[in-house]
Structures are given as structure tokens and as C-alpha cells.
UniProtKB/TrEMBL annotation:
PROSITE patterns assigned: HTH_ICLR (PS51077), ICLR_ED (PS51078)
SMART domains associated with the record: HTH_ICLR
Domain of life assignment: Bacteria
GO biological process: negative regulation of DNA-templated transcription
Residue ranges annotated for the HTH iclR-type domain, each copy included: 2-66
Any GO MF annotation of the entry: DNA binding
Annotated InterPro entries: GAF-like_dom_sf, HTH_MetabolicPath_Reg, Tscrpt_reg_IclR_C, Tscrpt_reg_IclR_N, WH-like_DNA-bd_sf, WH_DNA-bd_sf
Domain IclR-ED: 67-243
Keyword DNA-binding included in the entry's annotation: yes
Coiled-coil zones: none
Protein name per Swiss-Prot or TrEMBL: IclR family transcriptional regulator
Record keywords, A-Z: DNA-binding, Transcription, Transcription regulation
Amino acid sequence: MASVIERAVTILKLLIPQGGIKEWGASEIAYRSGIPVGTVHRILLELKKHGLVAQNDVTKKFRLGLLLMELGFIARENLSIMETAKPVLKNLMEKTKETAHLTIQDGYEGVLIDKIETMYELRTVQPIGMRTPLTRGALKKAILAFLPSDEINDIIEKHEKAKNRPQIMSELEDIRLKGYAISFGEVTCGTAAIATPVFDFQGKVVASIGIMGPATRFTQEEIPQKIKYVMEAGALLTKNIRGHDRVKRN
């Protein structure tokens, strides 16, 4: 039986905005979670008391509270790589004219923790905090390829069917050899991405840096130059955090 804390965490996760919807009623959350509506309502009121959720006075629906935002800002500040990455992301966006992304690993998933948006009106939009399996998309695969082999196997077994695993393993080997990953439409249809890993002082992969945009701007003529800029950004960020680079970027 799930503990109260587990149920509270489940409820908080279900309050994350989706598709423009930012508020949900207790009955909606109960339906989505499988938790009895009475239990959901009691937990929501307790979370509200502590500022973790807020309630709309008119609709009586619930949304994430300001305390979570404050805690989130503190967590982001603790990620020193983010501050170091800011100018590198900005420079990468200016050179490629595409949105520059910084992604880290959290368990079996990759999490977008920062980005610098392109100046183009036509762009791909992924919210900061977006989670995606580490087997999907260049920004995640650039991390996955450089994890320990047993961890790679666990992640692939969790996310992929057996018939797809040999292909993914082959792709990861190619990423290790080249030092970058490239993908088309793996996370969002009609998009493309290029990414490279970032390493800490022990040579452990701690993030990926890369670009994402409409696939129409990732032509065969443009891709080599975009790869060059992404690789330079990965080398610079690794150097700036005093990392030991495991990729030959020249």
C-alpha cells in the first residue's frame, strides 16, 4: 500500500501543467491517479496548508503553490553548471540561430534545466523541467552513450522493447565514436536536434549541451557547421567546469 508521502508526490506530479491546463479538481486527480477522491482531497488541503498547492477561490480547483517555485529556484541555484553554462548557451544560440538546450540526467530520464531561445519566430518549444526517456532524442542520447554499461543496459531495458535494443546500442556506440548525437523527430514530430556530452573532473558525464529546431533548418548543407558549433560548446563547458573531456572534438 502506498504511503501518504508517495500519494502526495503522485498528486503533486499530476498538478504539473499539461497542454495549457494548470488547475485540476480533486475528482480529476483521483481519476488520473487511482487514489480515492476523499484521500486526494485531504492530501490537497494539507499540501495547501503548507503552501505546496494553491486553490482557485472560484473554481475550487488546485494548482502548484509558490513554495514549490521557491524550492525549485533554490535547487536550480545549487546546480552550479547552470550558471557556468549560461554564456556558453547564449553563444551557441547566436552561432547556430537555434534554441540552445542544457539537459541533465535524473534516473532513467533526461531533464531540460535551461535553454536560450532562438530569435526565429518558427521554433520548437519545450518547457524547462520537461522530462524525456534517456533513449529518446539527441540531448538525452548524448548523456546515455557515456554512462556505465550496466546503467545503459538498465535504462534501455526499462524504456525499449527487446527488438529495438540492438539498434539503440549500435547508435550509442556511434555517438561515443563521433562525440555527438543527432536526431530527427524522436521527441517532437518535425524537429531535429544535435547534442554533445559535458563531463566533470572525473570524466563522468553530467549533462549534455545542444540545439533543437525545426527539421527544415537542419539541412545536409547546414548540419556540419551546426555540429562544429555544438562540439565547441561541449568542449568549452567541460573546460569551464574543470572537467576531464572524454570526447575528441577536433
